């Protein structure tokens, strides 16, 4: 288990469940079952929470129903896929989930998810069939957008009616936006098939994370479990660096698209990769075969592209604006260490503020309280931290003879509590700035 870092959010924990390899999607339903790593992680999480959680609330029967409801909400928050008949089928699990967690019996969570996945497949297929029909817009009827508090559809007939209204409303919205019938059909086909594709891409680790977070968030809203991938991304955000090609990626339809390239990274320096390019294949080293990644989940594509500094990755690219059927080109890039400077503290100077003459105000923007925990653990005395960066910025602003300094925290989402308190120490000599209370 990874060390627990003191963070501004009270209790954030990462349990490693072993390596997760990239795989072609969709996920086979036969693999959607708890494994030994999930069971071991569940036992560790429940024991750690029972022993160390601030609220000191032992897992008991009173939590089971709330965990059950929260898990269903995480899967189907708008109550559009499950029907009441499903909820009635799951009723036997409602009083048992506390025992399931304590004893690491996770099959109920996976049984529920498998029903959810099948319901999504059914509803999407029905929605696609509705797009082949014409709707009568002279009929006066209502569609409820927000169904968070609405009852579950009683049965499949009621669900059919709900989705008929949903599709009709989606068609009407696009008609009001002056879309042509053909464009409306294509847009909604992509929208609905995208829903099914994303659910098909959820694997056993995703199901486990959803279920365990239903448990941890029932205790209070700041306790959460991180899967290995989420934990890795969090560590990257804290140290502001990673080893890879320096490209920000996103999913566009079934393709992994380059959203932007990072200044100073291999992708930018090569001049061979641009925003809008689509990555359709990834190969490791100079000789390994190219793996087709069309339709893959973004996380799995990222796993293939990231890698140690100095190693080669080959990308099969369909250039921006080219047809999907165009012949792709191969881009070879040598991975390197990438600095995510857009999340680092930065400064600027404002002069003549509101007509106040020659007054100069220095502004230091701190987007997050970052700290390179890994470098610190290695004993690196020069590890990256918010406080060190801000100290340098203050010295630079003083050298520019500013009349005052403002620290801008408006978009700061939190991070290391140590950094938040040490940063305050740059401006306040003595006195308490934070109070920490541990479990008794």
Concise overview:
With 440 residues, the chain is an alpha+beta fold. The protein has helices at 36-52, 61-75, 84-89, 97-102, 107-130, 156-176, 181-200, 204-219, 228-239, 266-270, 298-305, 373-377, 386-399, 417-424, and strands spanning 11-14, 223-226, 241-244, 247-252, 255-261, 278-284, 291-292, 312-318, 329-334, 336-339, 346-351, 360-365, 404-408.
Structure, described:
Strands 4, 5, 6, 7, 8 and 9 form a 6-stranded antiparallel β-sheet that branches. A 3-stranded mixed β-sheet has the order 11-12-13, with helices on one face. Strands 1-2 form a two-stranded parallel sheet. The protein has about 450 residues and is of the alpha+beta class. A hairpin with a 6-residue loop joins strand 6 and strand 7 (about 290). The longest helix has 24 residues, at about 105-130. Helix 2 (about 60-75) packs across helix 8 and helix 13 runs parallel beside helix 14 (about 415-425). It has 14 helices and 13 strands. Residues about 1-25 have low confidence and may be disordered. It has helices at about 35-50, 60-75, 85-90, 95-100, 105-130, 155-175, 180-200, 205-220, 230-240, 265-270, 300-305, 375, 385-400, 415-425, and strands at about 10-15, 225, 240-245, 245-250, 255-260, 280-285, 290, 310-320, 330-335, 335-340, 345-350, 360-365, 405-410. The two termini are about 25 Å apart.
